[in-house]
Amino acid sequence: MKVKVLSRNPDDYVRETTRDIQRVPRNYDPTLHPFEVAREYTRALNATKLEKVFAKPFVAALDGHRDGISCITKHNKSLSTVLSGACDGEVKVWNLPKRQCLRTVQAHEGFVRGICSRFCGTSFFTIGDDKTIKQWNMEAPEYGVREEPLNMILGKTVFTGIDHNQRQATFATCGQSVDIWDEQRSSPIRSFSWGADSFSCVRFNPVETDLLASCASDRSIVLYDTRESAPLRKVVMRLRSNTLCWNPMEAYYFTCANEDYNLYTYDMRYLDLPVIVHKDHVSAVLDVDYSPTGQEFVSASFDRTIRIFPKDKGHSREVYHTKRMQHVICVRWSADSKYVLSGSDEMNIRLWKANASEKLGLV
Amino acid sequence: MAALTPEVLTSNVTHVGKMNKKKPPKRYWEETDEKRPEEEQGTTRRKQNKSTAKVRSSKWKNDETLEKEDPFPGEAPIPKKKLQKFMRGKKYNVHAEANQKVKEAIMSSEAMTEFAQKQAARYDLLLPEDAGFLEGDEDEDTNTISQDDIADAVDITSGSKYFNLHLSQFGPYRLDYSRTGRHLLVGGKKGHVACINWQSKDLMCEMNVMETVNDVKWLHTEAMFAVAQKKWLYIYDSKGVELHCVKKFNDLLRMQFLPYHFLLATTSATGFLQYLDVSIGKEVAAICTKMGRLDVMSQNPHNAVIHLGHSNGTVSLWSPIQKEPLVKMLCHRGAVRSLTVDKTGTYMVTSGLDRKLKVYDIRAFKTLHSCVLPAGASCLSLSQRGLLSAATGDIVQVYQNILGSSPVSKPYMAHRLRGQIWGLAYCPFEDVLGIGHGEGFTSMIVPGAGEPNFDALDTNPFRSSKQRQEWEVKALLEKVQPELICLDPGQLSKVDLVSFEQKHKERIAALGFDPMEKDRFKPRKKTKGRSSAGNIEKIKRKVAYEDQRDEIRQSIEERTEREKELTQKSMEKEDLGNKSTLDRFKKRKYPQQQ
């Protein structure tokens, strides 16, 4: 007679000391794990519900401006600094962790139309309704010294947008035409125009730093190369685009925020058809900014909401709104991809979490 | 160690394989290829280990290199049976006309499923334990081997798994093992309830509830158990403290616990099937079965459907969402005495008053085979590895390989007890069969009954109290809702074609036309006035007539085929029936075959 009875040695299944971790022998036989589909469904349902339970996206409101906010920009090197320009010509520099305003500069008379920081992070440029471009030092002046711009350029016409090259000491402005400026010169080194009478926004490509795109008032988007003498390409849409933003990871894609309540992502090599149409807003979309990961972008709209869209989906995954927040004019995604800043009509800049149920800070 | 000999330095043999070095591109000023590699050889050789250089030069000859060829290139092959074991569902064939994104999504998910299947099949090699077995000598029958012999032949711990508890005072005993197999609950008909850790013979609690006990069942852990007493359902703590007396559940006869749904299913003498959710303490469903006294009950562990056996020989399948049984099967000529279902949910074994033991394929609702027992089995139980134990009177017989397609002639093991058998249960993950009878409780060794390798994340017999607490929380979070209990447990993962069809119909009704219809035939446009409206209509009609003709022809063909089959069958039946000499004068209903 040959016989063997199952007998397990507890030494093989129980841990030796209390300082060890527990032993977990596995057997992946499907008959030992029944109801896989139902249990997985229950787990997914619970996870979604808990995500909504823990969703508290609003972090803080930065108060202090005395007029609506027209533009925001990030500091290129520091995560805790943010600059904002208001409709009364004031520019404020904020410290985000302390939620305090570090410095206020009366930059222009009239609106501050655009603000951008230099790639090295030592200075920033502002343009205003008084047809000037001013360059300011990022550090506050010493006690007693008056606030003076490092450089001031007078233009002939009103400028509506500004953006700085990511590598070289050149910047571009748009107004009646798109001008490329060298920081040392007081007149543009090159001027592009293609039929439109005004441009609303200009953006340099973050990867291919010689390319730029602009939104024109004749409902078109024009692409330029600073090395060429004429604009490259143009795509005309049904309604005007307000702003556009390049995808920092896939730099051949850019997304434009259109007046027809949609956002369009185009491939710059093939402008005939948009890659994706993002639909969810119920009023004109005013601003768009990509996350540094390039996977999502945030859009601000006249309908008092900001929406976060995945880059390849047609609808938004998240919408943020408050009773207090009125028409959102500008929006930026922070450089650590965790926060979103929105500047709105009622003089507040709001700080939101990009993932509403994420636990940020000490656990 | 002697210094490097000059031959080693200047010889052309390299110790590093030539394939490892990337040759730099040839420059226009270089004449030959040999100059560059020589320079590299010089630099690399200086860096080599001086002590082993001499050894190496003697070992390798000019032709051999350091790189050896792999005699079994590629991945290790996995046996098909193992792969089959981990397959869940068929491969999904993508429609050729589907959207590009849909195709990509399906292909990537199929690739991931295949990878997971292969990895799981590979892990099977690492399972630590093997199943038990019992093989007799050449002329010895395994069912003649007694338990004492087995207990003597194996080691002490396994031998101690055969024991008897003499409890002759309090009536025949019913029993239940907890899910981990560590704890045993016995309940005598005259009120004696005890729970013990049967391996260490540690008594957890013992009491007499002073009432008739019909059935006992562990709840999800060894902390609570339910006792179906004469009038109501009582829930006790493992220390014997009465926690709840559920008066809504009265006259209970049998109970089953559905572990993944935290449901206690109970049948009563009045014909009610009731479900109690033990995590929230609410009655989920109370179904009036209208089939009389329900005292034969089993659960299908694969889909949590309750099987009830009735006195008219039928077995009905119940789910808490429906008031009617899901399925009713006629199994036996007399009453059904006992039934059990295997853990994969494929086979059901029933025994009835007509002294037959039948094995069914539950998925197809077909009989596999049936055999006759001299006296019908009053209790049946299937182990984790497919061994069936049948109790008749005071004898227990264990059958092996009964779930295959061929009937089994003789039992694998047999054991005779003192009293009338009242309850049978296999201990999970152990080679032990627990028998509750009129004289107490017996634990019998059945080699090869238990699943050798458990999954610690599912049930871990060696779990500590911390592990048990963590497991309990996770199990409660994953508790499946009773609405998902149906015959096919994976129905949630399938495409809902029925709703799609209904929505499609509603859409057609709303729109007035079918938006998904394929393009109708459009005749070609002809020149010179030949494609006038009348001509086009004529061509369309012709094509429509042709299509109609084809359809009619097909349906006629099918009908004739069916009729032929019917006539053939009836002719065969007639031929098989009793023949007499007067047949040739009988009028034939059907034309005779020539």
Description:
The complex is a heterodimer of chains A (363) and B (594). Chain A is mainly beta. Chain A has helices at residues 10-13, 36-53, and strands at residues 2-4, 58-63, 69-74, 81-86, 90-95, 100-106, 112-117, 123-128, 132-137, 151-154, 161-164, 170-174, 178-182, 190-192, 199-204, 211-216, 220-225, 233-236, 241-246, 253-258, 262-267, 276-279, 285-290, 296-301, 306-310, 318-320, 328-333, 339-344, 348-353. Helices cover 6% and strands 43% of the residues of chain A. In chain A, the strands form seven sheets. Chain A has a four-stranded antiparallel β-sheet with strand order 2-29-28-27, with no helix packed on it. In chain A, strands 3-4-5-6 form a four-stranded antiparallel β-sheet, with no helix packed on it. A four-stranded antiparallel β-sheet of chain A has the order 7-8-9-10, with no helix packed on it. The longest helix of chain A has 18 residues, at 36-53. With 594 residues, chain B is of the alpha+beta class. In chain B, 24% of the residues lie in helices and 28% in strands. Chain B is built from ten helices and 29 strands. In chain B, the strands form seven sheets. Chain B has a four-stranded antiparallel β-sheet with strand order 2-29-28-27. In chain B, strands 3-4-5-6 form a four-stranded antiparallel β-sheet, with no helix packed on it. In chain B, strands 7-8-9-10 form a four-stranded antiparallel β-sheet, with no helix packed on it. In chain B, a hairpin with a 5-residue loop joins strand 27 (421-426) and strand 28 (432-437). The N and C termini of chain B lie far apart (105 Å). Chains A and B meet through strand 1, helix 1 and helix 2 of A and strand 1 and helix 6 of B. Strand 1 of chain A pairs antiparallel with strand 1 of chain B, so a sheet runs across the interface.
